[in-house]
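1st attempt posting a full record on here, be nice pls
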Amino acid sequence: MFKLDNPQMIYLFALVPLLFFLYYRMRRWKKRAIRQFGDPGLVRKLYPSVSISRPGLKFTLALLAMIALVAGLCGPLIGSRLEEVKRKGADIIIALDVSNSMLAEDIKPNRLGRAKQALNRLIDRLEGNRIGIVVFAGEAYVQLPITTDYNAAKMFIESINTEMVPTQGTAIGAAIDLARNSFTDTTRKHSAIIVMTDGENHEDDAVEAAKNAADAGVKVFTIGMGSAEGGPIPVHSNGAVVGFKQDNSGSTVVTKLNPVMLSEVASAGNGRFIRATNSDDGISLVLKELNALDKKEFKAKMYTDYENQFQYFIGLALMLMLVEFLLGEMKSKWIAQLNLFQVKNKGDQ
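the predicted structure (as tokens):
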């Protein structure tokens, strides 16, 4: 098992492309300055001992040293002992809407981004509960089966986007049915489904699906992502917004939260409807409801000991920096004297 002790340090890797860009710009400026001074070939003859390749090699070594240093600062941890432990908690499956309407920016950064932020906060406070993830648009798919591996859950959440379900739509009922059938326990008295969506259901009877889940002992909670005023659906190309989705008449489509339908689904599922806003994602209220669920004891295999591997990366960084420091920008005299590729005439022998 691998995880990071200081995951916030991973943002320092953003310095790598920045430094590479600055070095590239510096090299171009240097070549331009040499051309302005005179013929590049003649200028190089004025400085025969200056190496052309060594500055690039020194920069590469320095860049690799920085990458190794940042990797060490992240504190890579590797699980060293796997044990079977007993835990007590509830089973929770998140049904997350990934339809295009979740790209609307009426709550920031957008509905899907806000939902992913809320899920990460929820996972940080689960305390022993097991979690699974179902994604849905026009169809529903299991993204992550029930697990106690919170790190894996966060990695799956990070990868979720609106392109992972090929069929567009909002099949909330199908997502609830799939989530209900994904629970491993037969009684399901300690199970809950949390549907995170804007509530624009166009595919099936979500209320009936929630009622079926409640009859099986599974509570259904809904979190409304969006505002009553709504917002347009951005159209992206190469990572940039190039316009907004339009209907057949050419008018901009405005997607709005449907709190009435989400309240009906939650009521049929013996749960509660919670509305997310820019200031409150509703996770605190969800956790209060989850803590009231019946808990069961289950066995789970977990890594109980982790060994920090930062010293190997720091050592590698120091070694690379030492090599970079000792490597001068001048040509090595003893290598130059080898004349490995010099062709001798017969009269010179």
